[in-house]
Design brief:
The complex is a heterodimer of chains A (322) and B (415). Chain A has 322 residues and is an alpha/beta fold. In chain A, 46% of the residues lie in helices and 13% in strands. Chain A folds into two domains: 130 residues, Rossmann fold (3-Layer(aba) Sandwich); 186 residues, Rossmann fold (3-Layer(aba) Sandwich), CATH 3.40.50. Chain A has eleven helices and eight strands. In chain A, the strands form two sheets. Chain A has a four-stranded parallel sheet, with helices on both faces. In chain A, α4 crosses α8 and α6 packs antiparallel against α7. Chain B is α/β, with parallel strands linked by helices and 415 residues long. The longest helix of chain B has 25 residues. The chains are: A alpha/beta (322), B alpha/beta (415). At the A-B interface, α3, α4 and α10 of A face α9, α10 and α17 of B.
């Protein structure tokens, strides 16, 4: 079965499944040691890791690059220069208005036609409707994991398809929300090693990617798909939906009894770097402690460990004093 | 002492915040500008225009002041008679006046990290320090910058004023045209409501007419510069045209100024034998040494990507569609390979000898593409130099290395 690879969680996977493709997200490989042409030094580690993966031994059969940010737009151009076959670009709206949904639906319809041509087939809209229902069921099932006392690290690996075992969470430790840029799994492990309990991971491949709203089925399944993805919890890049993003963060804090936020930025990730200033101001107003940690989308440094440990310790002391 | 040096000297002497934000200051400066000498009448007109705009922005009870990001179609703001204020242009001015370090410090205190664009950090800090006028709304477009919409959204939320986003998808397709057009129509209506105005179609058509005259005048200027150099500073066009292209489109006065510049250039004698460069992105505003080096070596910026005409003719009877087409046709929109192809055409059209890309550290869109551009130009055998630096933050990079590399490049080109 041909597999479509993709790089941003706003990419609707139902489309690929409905066309009979397999699908997988590229999480990237450590770019160190690879020649890594085309991308400038001031672009984020995720785009570099994806370039290393897509231009290396794991060359995708089909790749859909979403225009989520300028780093990914440059990744697309870099892969064009690499001569990658079956490379597609997906323009992504940055607001949730009805005109954005209609535009995105049209784009998805076109992408479906282009992808269908790769296999010489055509899109069956009934099958897409069915895949939409399957997607809803799958997400509903997976999101239950966030109500069970399991370790956030093991949950994250499990959801990414990189681990099968869910280990129990340690109880009684400060409850944390992790948000911001896509984190390297090692960061989650480090949070737990430092005594934090990951109550919720608001990031790609985790809660934000599962907490989809109920949308009624439109006559046009592409419109349903567009609505579903644009009405999901907004990530930092959805700058036109900032009010909804804060409302969602507020709900997370309340529903998961969060005591502190770990805001992670991948170095040079503009969306997260700018949003951080607003989230930090909001958290201060709400009285929620926030720690900013930065990685290069690889192994977090020793300094990150020290800061995480101090943060967790501070939260524990704060809990006792309340 | 010319007008600009006079202003810089006053700031260095400690021209205080209340003076910088007082409309009276700009009235005094306008008198001074009227009495100062400028190499071209265009420059005097431009200075008076900028001072008038700034005075309007600080004048209490004036028209709504709308902060716009670079490349936002200002025609829809101009049509309503509002004041257009570009925080990015103002950040460049703050940097050239030596005000950037305190603004950058202030922004860093508000958690805008050093890896974000210094134009934005400086603007955020200047706003916190009360150096900018009070905005009534923020307008940003998404096509060329991830940072500006984010910053504007943050500032609008903090100051409790509206934030209007123009979402520009990374493709030029009929669907994208319709999507951007619909947003522009909605934004024009919402902006009109902001100031209690009616969204008059006639006023918008007038703004588009002015914008088309602006475009035609820019084309005339481009044509004057084709194969010809002028006895003007190497960065004359970069300095003067960027401001107008960022804030002046849709203004009849801005169009008239460019027409005047075209007339003056047509009369100016050419100065032969200079190395002609195509300049990418902007320049360090805190440090004149790169431009001084160009002047000393007899090199000039024969063309700049930021000031060239890339968009098609505007049709005032179809304002939203025209503006949508303009926004979507931006040469740097989409994959960097598209930008490279446009730059090659520009280089050939303007008879340039080589390309200098000033890679502003915090700009993911422009400097993030340098490796792709380098590769394209290398394939085409076109001399290409990357100068890493920062347009606003003088403390971010050492200037010596950039200067040495520029000198070597000019030497190679025969300058």
């Amino acid at each position: 079965m041909t597999t479509v690879s993709w790089v941003c969680s706003y990419t609707p996977r139902e489309l690929f499944r409905a066309l009979g493709f397999g699908e997988r997200r590229l999480w990237g490989v450590d770019p160190r040691g690879s020649a890594l042409p085309h991308l400038a030094a001031n672009l984020c580690g995720y785009s570099r890791a994806c370039l290393a993966q897509a231009s290396g031994e794991e060359r995708p059969e089909v790749l859909v690059v979403a225009g989520s940010c300028h780093a990914l737009i440059h990744l697309y151009a870099a892969l064009q220069l690499e001569g990658l076959k079956n490379l597609f670009f997906l323009p992504l709206p940055r607001l949730g208005a009805s005109e954005a949904e209609e535009f995105f639906a049209a784009v998805l319809r076109r992408l479906a036609e282009e992808l269908a041509a790769v296999r010489g087939g055509r899109m069956d809209e009934e099958r897409l409707k069915e895949e939409l229902r399957v997607g809803v069921r799958e997400r509903r099932e997976k999101i239950r994991l966030f109500r069970e006392p399991v370790s956030g690290f093991s949950r994250y690996l499990y959801l990414r398809g990189e681990g099968k075992d869910l280990t129990p969470a340690r109880s009684g430790f400060p409850r944390l929300a992790l948000t911001g840029s896509p984190p390297p799994p090692r960061l989650l492990q480090l949070v737990e090693e430092c005594g934090g309990c990951l109550a919720v991971e608001d990031c790609c491949g985790a809660y934000r990617d599962l907490y989809f709203p109920e949308v009624g089925e439109a006559e046009d399944p592409f419109l349903t798909l567009a609505r579903l993805y644009l009405r999901r919890p907004p990530c930092p890049r959805m700058v036109g939906d900032r009010a909804r993003r804060f409302k969602y963060l507020q709900e997370l804090i309340r529903d998961f009894r969060v005591e502190g936020i770990v805001y992670h930025t991948v170095k040079f990730c503009d969306h997260a770097l700018y949003e951080l200033a607003a989230v930090r101001r909001w958290a201060e107003k709400e009285g929620i402690p926030l720690l900013w940690v930065e990685t290069e989308y690889g192994e977090p440094g020793e300094q990150v460990r020290v800061r995480l440990a101090a943060f967790v310790e501070m939260l524990a002391a704060r809990r006792e004093s309340l | 002492m010319n007008f600009y040096e006079h202003l810089k000297a006053r700031v260095a002497e400690g021209l205080k915040r209340h003076a910088l934000t007082n409309p009276l200051t700009y009235r005094v400066l306008k008198t001074l500008a009227r009495r100062s000498s400028f190499p071209l009448r265009f420059q005097q007109k431009l200075t008076l225009f900028a001072l008038e705009e700034t005075e309007r922005a600080f004048r209490p009870g004036s028209n709504p002041v709308v902060f716009t990001s670079a490349f936002f179609p200002t025609e829809i703001v101009r049509a309503l008679g509002y004041v257009v204020f570009s925080p990015e242009v103002a950040a460049a001015l703050a940097s050239s006046l030596g005000l950037a370090p305190s603004c950058l410090r202030e922004a860093e205190g508000a958690w805008y990290g050093r890896d974000t664009c210094s134009f934005h950090r400086c603007a955020a800090g200047a706003l916190e320090l009360g150096l900018f006028p009070k905005p009534d709304a923020f307008c940003a477009s998404t096509h060329l910058c991830d940072g500006a919409p984010q910053l504007f959204a943050n500032l609008a939320r903090r100051l409790r004023v509206p934030f209007f986003l123009l979402d520009v998808p990374q493709e030029e397709s009929p669907e994208a045209l319709a999507y951007v057009g619909r947003q522009l129509e909605r934004l024009y209506r919402q902006l009109a409501e902001l100031g209690g105005r009616r969204p008059e179609e006639e006023a918008l058509a007038e703004a588009l007419e002015a914008s088309e005259r602006f475009r035609q005048a820019l084309l005339r200027i481009e044509s004057c510069r084709k194969g010809k150099s002028f006895p003007l500073p190497p960065d004359f066009f970069l300095n003067n045209l960027v401001y107008l292209t960022f804030v002046g489109q849709g203004s009849g006065e801005a169009a008239r100024m460019l027409e005047l510049l075209a007339e003056e250039l047509e009369r100016l004698p050419s100065s032969p034998g200079r190395v002609r460069l195509l300049w990418l992105h902007l320049k360090p505003y805190h440090d004149p040494s790169l431009m001084a080096c160009l002047a000393q070596r007899g090199a000039t910026l024969a063309s700049e990507e930021m000031t060239h005409v890339y968009w098609p003719e505007l049709d005032p009877s179809l304002p939203y569609k025209s503006l949508a087409r303009k926004v979507l046709s931006h040469f740097a929109h989409g994959p960097a390979t598209r930008r490279a192809a446009t730059l090659r055409r520009l280089l050939e059209g303007q008879a340039c000898d080589g390309v200098v890309c000033f890679a502003h550290w915090g700009c993911r869109q422009s400097s993030g593409a340098v490796e792709i551009l380098r590769e394209c130009f290398s394939r085409w055998g076109i001399p290409f130099l990357v100068l890493e630096g920062d347009c606003v933050d003088g403390g971010a990079v050492g200037k010596g290395q950039a200067l040495t590399r520029l000198e070597a490049f000019l030497e190679m080109l025969g300058g």
